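Q: My labmate handed me this sequence with no annotations at all. I'd like to see what the chain might look like in three dimensions before we decide whether it's worth expressing. Could you predict it?
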Amino acid sequence: MKSEHLERIEPRTLRENVTEILRQSIINGSLPPGSELNQVQIAEQLGTSRGPVREALGQLEQEGLIENIPYKGVLVTQLSRRYVEEIYSVRAALEKLALDRAIDQMNDDEIAELDNIVDQMRAAAKRESLDDLVALDLAFHEYIMRQADHHLAWKLWKQLEIGVQRCLHVRHEIYTFLDEVVGSHPTLVTAIQQRNKAWAFQILDEHIGESASHIFASLPEEEDEDAVAAGAAEV
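A: Here is what I predict for the chain of 235 residues:
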């Protein structure tokens, strides 16, 4: 594993800090799919003991970012087509639910905050800060989720958050110009301002569908598991 992308931290750093450093390295591609994570090397690079690293790896495995493969070690997972489809189908359902509730409840100041996030996205695109743009894109959609005031939907969204963040990073890297990421966000804000649910739902559907399509187009074709199994059975 290459070490130049990991910043050294103090021995007192807790498991959460180690987890976040590794998590963001995976999400932003510094640790690409297939990278092997070695506890000893990570502990040395971060200047901490192996205990927090071991606990961090356990958390990342639960989040689906890494997997422990016998005889190969702990590897960063691939972003599969099935994973993206599942993330985006659940995301779409949750965001539609949230939008349906939020559009009736948000006041002018809260809608203005969405506009503010869009302005920050434009600024991040202008300075070509992909990490900031991913964070702001996520913040825009999270803000609508919070305004829905639906506790279970919020908990489910938070479980999706890391997967969504990873997908957004892949999607945004596809664009030639980062200002394209701003896309339909301003139009969605306008639809919310006008309390036009039909229009808002259409924009959200197209926005999420386009995002998923871009990610699918960037992924390699995968073999059909049933076909592979059938072929093996015939041998």
